[in-house]
Amino acid sequence: MRKKDWTDSAVSQLYVGGKMFKTKKLDLESGGTLLAVMNIADCESMNLNPSDRIRLSWDEDEIVVILDSSKKLVNIGEIGVSEDVWGNFELPDRVHVFPARKPKSLAYIRKRLFGEPLKKNEIETIVTDLIENRLSSVEATYFVASAYVQRFSPEEEETLTKAIINQGKILKFDRKPVLNKHCIGGVPGNRTTPIVIPIVAAAGYLIPKTSSRAITSPAGTADVIEIIMNVEMSAEEMKAIAEKTGAAMVWGGSVDLAPADDKLLKIRYPLKLDPLPLLVASVLAKKVAEGSDTVLIDVPIGRKVKTLDEATKLGERFIELGKRLGLKIRSVITDGSQPIGRGIGPSLEIRDVLEVLQGKGPEDLKEKSVILAGHLLEMAGEKRPFKLAQELLESGKAWKKMKEIIEAQGGDPNLSMDDIPIGHFNWDYVASADIEHLVYNSNTVAQIAREAGAPGVKGAGVYLHVPTGGSVGKGEKIITIYAEDETRLNCAISFLKENAPFMCKKTVIDQLV
Predict the structure, then answer these.
(1) Angle at 5 between CA 3 and CA 11, to 5 degrees
(2) Burial class (CB in 10 A: 0-12, 13-18, 19+), 120
(3) What is the pLDDT of residue 509?
(4) What Cα–Cα distance (Å) separates residue 56 from each residue in 4, 239, 303, 348?
(5) DSSP state of 151
(6) Residues of the chain with CATH 3.90.1170.30
(7) What integer pLDDT is reported at residue 213 of this predicted model?
(8) What fold characterizes domain 3-100?
(9) Looking at the predicted structure, is the pLDDT value of residue 138 above 90?
């Protein structure tokens, strides 16, 4: 960031007491944050503390960075800079270092943590500072955590959503409607998006979709789709593919449509923070940025929302905020108490998807995908939407459309199941007795998949041999765990043995020893 940018901000106010330091490039990635490190002795001499802001000045340029300290990483008289600094700015051998004020957004974040709602300009300032890397990950995390302290008001949600939208690009299409869908998540499997999209596109509608990577689950939609096609591209490339095929399936972090939201997603990931107010703002900001005007929201009752009343209120929040943003929203409440499909983990889930598109696969995944596609087609004005969705899937037209999308996004449209490898190491959990009406513990099953390495390891995960409500005989397979190394496999096995992955008539089944 150049001098003019910082001069226009309160962050740049200069105090007296600057010193000259020798610059040192550190092999340190700071996740986009502009970070510098000074020796503790220098920090003390300048009355500086970790997380303070300092201004680095040279010639006609300057930047403001976040300070950290060390006894050994840099010598006295040196200032170390992270890759996010030296990779983006041409620093000379020596720079002047001055204290600088912390951004105003920190006071606003603190205000919200104490339960006070924020004004429009305060939320906008926080989002701007976030996108300009003026906040550390810890500071930004406190903003996310404030949603747990006090629910965002409708006005705060609207302001946050618009602030996120205004910081990025917005796709514009010549034809309408532009359809879209989103599931709030929390259900293992449930990979309906890559089935719904080709069904809707096969009906002649436009449905460009960005998806996130996993936050709390063993796989996000982008984690799954990238196994068979490229999901990282520019907004312009995404638009061109959507106009050519009627659809696109892209990782939201690559297209710069709502970069502030992408930063918030990264912040939420380490502690698996997913507060519903930020979820609503995040989802609808992305839908507006994608150029959508008609959006279906899937709200499963299960992990994220526990009751019908909670699900109804959340669905209404989407509809209310959608109206303020000019979106036509329909919220559908679904059963999220059990996994959807058989595979849990990126490779296992995309196998389920391809099987369904080819006329096979898990019935529950197929049924839910058809229902969701039918709702979208009904919102678009189709008279027999659910029957049409079924016909497009069963006739193979949806699969044909999927192959077009795969090819347009750099994948092989003639791929086979053998092209989707799963973990080389596996372990079967078998029934110790005859079991009737098996009911899974979704949270436990999801965690087993994560212990095995999902979503980072694509071939890791869990395969459920018995559908929900099904029966199994003694000695028959119930679950197979897949991993890419024995250590991960053993971690998953140990977790399974300590936590019952399913129940029968609400009674925990004996575990293997």
Answers:
(1) 90
(2) middle
(3) 39
(4) 14, 40, 47, 50
(5) P
(6) 421-508
(7) 85
(8) Barwin-like endoglucanases (2.40.40)
(9) no
The amino acid that residue 6 corresponds to is W
Question: Residue 345 is encoded by which pair of tokens?
Answer: 């983990």
Residues of the chain with CATH 2.40.40.20: 3-100
**Listed residue (413, 490, 498, 423) closest to 462, CA to CA:** 423
Positive/negative CA dihedral, 340, 345, 351, 357: positive
pLDDT tens for residues 401-436? 999 999 999 999 999 998 998 999 999 999 999 988
The maximal CA–CA distance of the chain, rounded, in angstroms, is 79
Exposed/middle/buried for residue 487 (C-beta within 10 Å: 0-12, 13-18, 19+): exposed
- Rounded to whole angstroms, the Cα distance separating 11 from 100 reads 6
Where residue 77 falls (left for φ over 0; alpha for ψ -120 to 50; beta otherwise) is left
- Residue 129, pLDDT above cutoff 80: yes
Statement: 421-508 belongs to CATH 3.90.1170.30: yes
Identify the DSSP state of 152.
P
Residue 265 has pLDDT above 90, yes or no: no
Q: What pLDDT, in 10s, does the model give residues 302-312?
A: 888 899 999 99
Residue 185 vs residue 474, higher pLDDT: 474
Question: Is residue 357 helix, strand or coil?
Answer: helix
Residue 175 has phi, psi (to 5 degrees) of: -110, 155
Specify whether the CB–CB gap between 35 and 85 falls below 8 A: yes
Q: How far apart are CA 356 and CA 353, in angstroms?
A: 5
Calpha distance 51→376 (Å, rounded): 48
DSSP run (H or E) holding 311: helix 308-324
- 3 pLDDT band (50/70/90 cuts)? very low
Which one of 3.40.50.1820, 1.10.3470.10, 3.40.1030.10, 3.40.50.620 gives the CATH number of domain 179-408?
A: 3.40.1030.10
In three-state secondary structure terms, 112 is: helix
Write the pLDDT tens digit of every residue in 17-71. 589 999 999 999 887 889 999 999 999 999 999 999 999 999 889 999 999 999 9
The answer on pLDDT for 1 being more than 50 is no
- Residue matched to tokens 């979709």: 209
Q: Indicate the pTM of the whole model.
A: 0.85
Give long-range contacts, CB 8 A cutoff, 24+ apart: 135-138: 135/33, 135/103, 135/105, 135/106, 136/33, 136/51, 136/66, 137/31, 137/33, 137/266, 137/267, 138/51
Q: pLDDT tens digits for 345-360?
A: 999 999 999 999 999 9
Residue 465's φ and ψ, nearest 5 degrees, are -75, -25
Please determine, for residue 174, whether its predicted confidence score (pLDDT) is greater than 90.
yes
- Enzyme catalytic residues: 274
